[in-house]
Queue: 2 jobs
Job 1
Amino acid sequence: MAGSLERGRTRVRGFADPEMDFQLMRQLGTARYGGAAVGECLALAAGIGDADPDAWVRAFGQAAARQEADAEARASRGHGISARDQYLVACNSYRAAEYYLRVDDSLHREHGLASRRAFLAAMRSGGIACEPWWFELDGLRLPAYHVRGPGSAGDRLLAIVSGFDGTLEETYIAYGAAALERGHDLLLFTGPGQMDTWRFNAASHFVPDFERIGRAVVDRALALPGLRAEGLALMGISFGGYFAVRIAAHEPRIGALIANSPIVDLHAYMTSFIGLDPAGLSDADDFGPDDLPHIPDTVMNAQTREMARNLMLRFGQASFRSTYRYLREFRVDEGALARIACPCLALVGEGEGGEPLRQSRLFVRSVAGLADEHVFTAEEGADGHCQTGNLGLSAAVAMDWLDEVRGHAATI
């Protein structure tokens, strides 16, 4: 043949760098629930160099502004469904740009607030009942959303908390929309240190005693008309798996718990990914945020420097070593796990490594109530962290389990 058949210029190529490739998969995965378009993500990725966070921020930030402007134009012409869809894509593109920015950079806050703005516009355009809520803790204003499904009786509510870099809006796209389809109302909430909290507070740090915000969330949820404790389920995503387990260990009013995945020892979990324990760094090898610009690329590339900086800032620590020492406080021991009497589901991917699988199994055998575990596989394209590559399957497993547990509970 004289030439090959070419049907388009967009190619299915990711990144050689595993972390940036994971972030691309994270964005692609949300296409299942309207958070992205596969072709658009791949087109953007083609213009981003490996492990180049600045190029990523520019590409997704520019795309988000274009998508939001398109949504506004469609809304002005009365095309509500089209506007809703484009606003949701813009919301998630702003989140992607927000991810690689320093949390103390003004652009981080700008992209975060733009993501929130586009999300609320999507809810209005789609006629979805979404009410912004606020919680107060230690002088911080903690944002949340209460979302009600059409025709809801108000007797089933799924409260979801994300983790280190997830946002309220991404949580809605990745898990909340699937829950609404199945008749659950939503309460998406955050705590100190989380991305959404940084948008409204100049500085905020993660705290191990997350049950304090959990108590306030449960109090307000159970004040809703028609909702009783058995109808209140709690789900934790990523680092939110720790938050949710910690809440459930101190809060008996949770009707069911889904941990994706259950983190009971954050220090062991984090050190397993890097293969060493920075808590043992010598004075000569330790570093703080101000030292990062002086570390050569041959030792630490730009992407890793930004991730290390955000880790220290988000945990409120002066150095990398002190950050990992602080992580030791983020634990739920077996005695606390034994206080969890509600039905529990542990979700984990086989590709996450030995430590997440070990902690999942410790959780399942330590809680007092019914406990199930589901391990997602590479064959399903769901073996990665939080099943970003197959969110539909993850939702099916989690939501079907929740429906079946509640159905079983209603007959005994």
Note: The longest strand covers residues 129-137.
Job 2
Amino acid sequence: MAFDSRLLNGIGVVSAVVEAGSFARAGEALGLTQPAVSRAVARLEQRIGIRIFNRTARSISLTDEGRRYYEAVAPLIAGIEDATLSAGRAKALVRGRLRVNVDGAFGHFVLTRRLGAFLDQYPDLAVDVAVRDAMGDLVGDGFDVAVRFGYPEPSNLRAELLLETRVLTCASASYIARYGAPSHPRDLVNGHQCVLLRDPSTGRPYEWEFSRGGETIPFQASGRLMVHDTGSLIGGCLGGIGMAQLLELYAENLLGEGKLVQMLPEWSDETFPLYAYHRASNLVSAKVSAFLSFVRQITR
């Protein structure tokens, strides 16, 4: 079919709806009424012959066909925006609003503590950081990029390994005074307490293991406290309730300040990966590229 320039307007409206999460908020961002947004989406749906959104009285979500369409056109729209701005200064390319999806460990203890330098570098950029147990639907929920610990699951997203950080077993001085310090993983079965972290994908505690050289010893950790987030895990460990397995990327400051002590340091070869995720396209927007460069710097 012949290209209709009005398609670009409709695609822009769809992109605003995905980012805002509703027709009303998209209208506010675009300076349109909610009915005008609804009509623009309906015209685009009629033009391309698919239903883009599932609509209910309380929420909207992308249909399967709508998601595939949005994944294909969103990078192109971002490329057009960047090309339009390319006549200005390089910093002018990094502007608008960047929506970032992170897990609690990275969001609370790494990203937000260091984000000020990034915001200072790009004064025309605003950042929304959403901490979530699971990444969910990155595209459908309107996120630009995600940074999360753990191994990637199969998806249409591009996953970039940022680093592999060691898993350290830590305890407070008060815990050591009460229970002693183990000299070997097998000593943990003799009355030691562990603070357990719930795996949101299974509902069960994460499994513990100890690695040295090529040897790995699995351990069935047990304790009276199970938590659902990293902040509570660190809090329980600092409070002397039990030992905890923490990631070195955020535990190193606590160890350096003497607030925690590393247990069994010779058995700490186990690592856990940190990945960045974004749409699988060669047309990565300037704001996403700038953010990924920043994250690579702070995780070196």
Note: The radius of gyration is 23 Å.
